[in-house]
Amino acid sequence: MKDFDTLESILYAHSNNKIIPGLERISRLLERLGNPQNSFKAIHIVGTNGKGSTGAFISSVFQASGYKTGFYSSPHLASPGERLLIDGEELSAEEWIEAANEAVSKIFTNAASKSTGDGKLTASSTSENVSEIFTNVAPTSTVGEKLTTTSTSENVSKNLTNAASISTSGEKLTASSTDENVGKNLTSSASRASSTDDDLSITRPPAPKEELPSYFELLTAAAFVLAKRKNIDVGIIEAGLGGRLDATNLLGKTVCSVIASISMDHMEYLGPTLQDIAGEKFAVVKENVPACFSGVDASLIPLFKEFCARVKAVPFVLPENVRVENVRITPKGNIFDFYAPNLELKEIMTGLIGDYQIQNAALALSAISLVKNLFPKITEDTIRKGMFHAKWPGRLEVISREPLIILDGGHNYDGVKKLCESVKTLWPDKKFAVVYAAMKDKDYTGGLELLSENLRPSLYATTVPNMTRAAKPEDLLQAAENFIWANSPEGFNLPVDAVKKAISDKNDGVIVCGSLYLVGYVKRNNIFG
What we know:
This protein has about 525 residues and is α/β, with parallel strands linked by helices. The chain contains 20 helices and 17 strands. An eight-stranded mixed sheet has the order 4-3-2-5-1-6-7-8, with helices on both faces. α12 links the parallel β7 and β8 (about 315).
């Protein structure tokens, strides 16, 4: 029986191990696969926090309305199969492996690199063909053809969306500047043959590892292949790291662009300021397509409208276009009234708990209000059913009530802040223990400070085993020395030991938080039985 370890082996063996911004690799790969991302209507979701929950609400409503629905999200907690749900269900590892191998076969220049009968690529075919990856040839070319510089630029440009040609400052790029910027990401100068007529030769020198698609790009291509095979009616597609240059930003039938809250994260890739980060995310808006923004951070609303105006996208901003009233937040769900121009709902209840899920639910309902004319099977009853039954694991997820154990993957300042606010609202009188792990490149000092100031919990620092990127417990304890805790903080090399100690110390509840990788480890290893 093939499993997801086999899938991961294929993905890692045929992708580079770094984030390299640019759409040329994924555009070329999708073109060779027949552009499966254009086979379904799509709602595209970007943002810093709240994307997954918002997508879960929207997906659940479409599913409840009788539409065949694909929900693509990241990262996964226990296995890559979680990343694409068809009508709420994971696909088999066999199906994923078949789709991944199809995508891998399109990276290479000859059939020798295709998978063997058992769904695996041989080591020899991998090593022989990595050196023959096309680094700059338009996706439609075949061996023996020559492409002019003009046709190459045209083919690349066709695969970039309108929004991708907008700079982060909001300026439209001219045709010449588009070619110029695309060229910066291509290793064209290294791969051009000396030719008197300036044609590009198909014969290439060995391609560097960087020309392979990233893990996320390859996984996204496989997911789009699967979505097409399953003949979905609508795809709810969550972006990965950014927006403008994200692998998901090549969707051909976007019916609504949805932007969740925006805050400081991934500055090394998206820019040093909030405006820079927002610009990368707002650039996904499409021409004449409605775009919906949570309005968080409120200072970004003018920039959002500016981006919409440039491509004639219809802007929709929650604080301006929506009223949310009579809010009640309980450990069993949230209840509120929702008023938008095309949709009014009283006493709507959501299964996802926490203060911040009001905002995510309102954003999801706003998007639904903007597209429901395209999907006539959506009714008030299906909206209510979908919102109530939406699930999103690892975000304020209560996995036990006796004892009370909560999993939360909030890993940046805004995420930890929302966790603290929700815990104080839902369980104001309980004294919590926090089992905490974080990645070395995240602001874990800031996260610990928020937890200390807001919850005054006991602290049990741990790590994510076998992950070199994870901070060591002793580093977390050193950072924690500056803050006040209900205990003398302790460190553990295994999360299970930290959880056992937190429970045995008779705390009112245990929160496992700080990293989605920690939450994923806990779920994969079934720590709580």
